[in-house]
């Protein structure tokens, strides 16, 4: 009871601070720790993924309330393809289900939110590809807010792909080598908007190949949090957003259990 009261007071303080400061326009989140969260409860990995998906829904609401215009979520990396087959199938089911729910969400339509998938979508199972197409089509005309779901995504691979496209354009005479600059490369990326703040849960102090170009040469601020993604709470979200205008760059909060004691997953 006392803990709940204290958290309520702390959230109210953060809300007041947030109301008088600039919020990041584009927030990128590495949602780490679903499986480790499940293990702390004695559950199977898919239970952690399911609870993580529910947390994502909460965070979408928090981001909207905070006035964040664009949110990019690292839902499935290229490295994740190496996981156990049964776990992957369940994870793909959850991703497809949540994408379809977003496509039909009253909040998404009322808030005029455009949702799109970024990454090597063709590598994903048909049900996930269809769900991506569905939510993109249902929200195509919206422009008040943006949600990007990174699926089968790797940042270095995105840059390599952009370089290949640029090389083909040079061969075809569309672009001259002398005219190539950062904006030329950026125009060929899957995601072209710059990130203001990265948030990573799960205790790891790295961004794991997530949007390296969009980080503007590491100019984007980073907030690391030890809480596993399903246990990430509103006061931690508010603290992360408020940290955007703190001096000194990266901000870290510590909360037991320390996830850095285990491999990231």
Automatic annotation (TrEMBL):
Residues 34-56 are annotated as: Disordered. The keyword Translocase does not apply. Its cofactor is Mg(2+). PROSITE patterns: UPP_SYNTHASE. Mg(2+) binds at residues 32, 219. InterPro entries: UPP_synth-like (IPR001441), UPP_synth-like_CS (IPR018520), UPP_synth-like_sf (IPR036424). Homodimer. Catalyzes the sequential condensation of isopentenyl diphosphate (IPP) with geranylgeranyl diphosphate (GGPP) to yield (2Z,6Z,10Z,14Z,18Z,22Z,26Z,30E,34E,38E)-undecaprenyl diphosphate (tritrans,heptacis-UPP). It is probably the precursor of glycosyl carrier lipids. This is Tritrans,polycis-undecaprenyl-diphosphate synthase (geranylgeranyl-diphosphate specific). It comes from Halorutilus salinus.
């Amino acid at each position: 009871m006392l803990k709940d009261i204290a958290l309520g007071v702390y959230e109210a303080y953060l809300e007041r601070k947030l109301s008088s400061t600039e919020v990041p326009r584009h927030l990128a989140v590495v949602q780490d720790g679903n499986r480790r969260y499940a293990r702390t409860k004695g559950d199977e990995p898919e239970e952690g993924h399911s609870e993580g998906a529910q947390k994502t829904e909460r965070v979408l609401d928090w981001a909207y309330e905070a006035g964040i215009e664009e949110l990019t979520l690292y839902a499935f990396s290229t490295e994740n393809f190496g996981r156990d087959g049964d776990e992957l199938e369940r994870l793909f089911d959850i991703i497809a289900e949540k994408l379809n729910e977003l496509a039909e969400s009253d909040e998404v339509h009322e808030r005029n939110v455009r949702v799109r998938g970024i990454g090597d979508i063709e590598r994903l199972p048909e049900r996930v590809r269809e769900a991506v197409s569905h939510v993109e089509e249902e929200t195509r005309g919206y422009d008040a807010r943006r949600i990007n779901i990174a699926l089968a995504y790797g940042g270095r691979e995105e840059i390599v792909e952009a370089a290949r496209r640029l090389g083909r354009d040079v061969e075809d005479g569309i672009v001259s080598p002398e005219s190539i600059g950062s904006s030329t490369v950026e125009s060929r990326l899957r995601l072209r908007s710059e990130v203001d703040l990265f948030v990573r849960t799960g205790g790891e102090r790295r961004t794991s190949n997530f949007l390296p170009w969009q980080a503007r040469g590491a100019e984007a601020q980073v907030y690391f949090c030890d809480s596993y993604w399903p246990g990430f709470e509103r006061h931690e979200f508010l603290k992360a957003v408020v940290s955007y205008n703190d001096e000194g760059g990266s901000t870290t909060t510590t909360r037991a259990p320390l996830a850095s004691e285990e491999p990231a997953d």
